[in-house]
């Protein structure tokens, strides 16, 4: 798929901005997934603590893929413990991906000479003398 470029063969500012926004979106998705898995881990810990005090033959219900399934505590508890052991590994892998994504964003910023401004500074207040001629300015809110 060919990208449209300016007259000088370089990507347009709008394409650079879209690429940056895409990278930031991927970074946010990774952070959200990490947060979700950390909440799942805490829930697993609470449920395991609760079920350990219950007799193994007691009936319990578990949500599997949006469907409530009836099982016994003896069947569910080992599955929950295995999941609890795997969640930290998944969280660690996602944290590594998040770190790599941050490095990728930093490299993208350097490659395209992007100056990121936070919402506190109005981009129209930047004087032309202060900014280099080939600098892309990106204003991020929040």
TrEMBL record:
The keyword Ubl conjugation does not apply. Keywords: Chaperone, Coiled coil. One of its GO terms (molecular function) is unfolded protein binding. SUPFAM superfamilies: Prefoldin. The keyword Coiled coil applies. Residues 20-54 form a coiled coil. One of its GO terms (cellular component) is prefoldin complex. Residues 115-142 are annotated as: Disordered. GO terms for biological process: protein folding. It comes from the Eukaryota. PANTHER family: PREFOLDIN SUBUNIT 2. Heterohexamer of two PFD-alpha type and four PFD-beta type subunits. Belongs to the prefoldin subunit beta family. Binds specifically to cytosolic chaperonin (c-CPN) and transfers target proteins to it. Binds to nascent polypeptide chain and promotes folding in an environment in which there are many competing pathways for nonnative proteins. This is Prefoldin subunit 2. It comes from Euphydryas editha.
């Amino acid at each position: 798929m060919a990208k449209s470029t300016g007259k000088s063969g370089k990507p347009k500012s709008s394409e650079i901005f879209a690429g940056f926004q895409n990278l930031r979106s991927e970074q946010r998705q990774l952070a959200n997934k990490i947060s979700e898995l950390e909440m799942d881990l805490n829930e697993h810990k609470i449920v395991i603590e609760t079920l350990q005090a219950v007799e193994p033959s007691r009936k319990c219900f578990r949500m599997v893929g949006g469907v409530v399934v009836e099982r016994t505590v003896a069947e569910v508890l080992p599955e929950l413990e295995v999941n609890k052991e795997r969640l930290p590994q998944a969280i660690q892998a996602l944290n590594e991906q998040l770190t790599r994504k941050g490095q990728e964003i930093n490299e993208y910023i350097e490659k395209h000479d992007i100056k990121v401004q936070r919402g506190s500074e109005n981009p129209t207040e930047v004087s032309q003398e202060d900014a280099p001629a080939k600098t892309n300015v990106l204003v991020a809110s929040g």
